[in-house]
Amino acid sequence: MNGSKEFEFAIETFLNKAKIDDYELSIALENERKNITECCDYIIQKVKEKKVNAMTDSEVFNLAIEYYLNEEDIKIKKNNCRVVTGSEHPNPTLPKSSDRKNKQMSIFDLM
Mutual orientation of helices 36-50 and 57-69 as an angle, nearest 10°? Predict the structure, then answer.
């Protein structure tokens, strides 16, 4: 599953800012074999491998950098999940305990 457009935009915006101060990253972002959609799929895959329900912004952005700086071809598995970014939920709140029993948390619900 591809990340939402908001997720892709958040990652792409971060990378465009980060490349200003990181020459190695700016070169890596020019790699035509890599793209933002696959980068987001890579992040989702890594989060699922870690078996966590949420990660900090920094952890997510570091995975994006890892994707681009890794020179190998990366095998991406398609995952079925829901990604929530800060732009979708500017003030995230935890569901009430009664709601948590019926709702499966997504990997980014707490971001």
Answer: 120
Cα distance between residue 43 and residue 62, in whole Å: 9
pTM beyond 0.90, yes or no: no
The backbone torsions φ and ψ at residue 65, rounded to the nearest 5 degrees and listed phi first, read: -65, -45
Q: Residues 6 or more apart from 43 whose CB is under 8 A from it?
A: 3, 11, 60, 63, 64, 67
CA dihedral 52, 55, 61, 62 (to 10 degrees): -60
pLDDT digits (tens, 9 = 90+) for 19-36: 999 999 999 999 999 999
CA torsion 43-49-55-57 (nearest 10°) is -20
Locate 14 and state its tokens.
Answer: 């971060």
d(CA 59, CA 63): 6
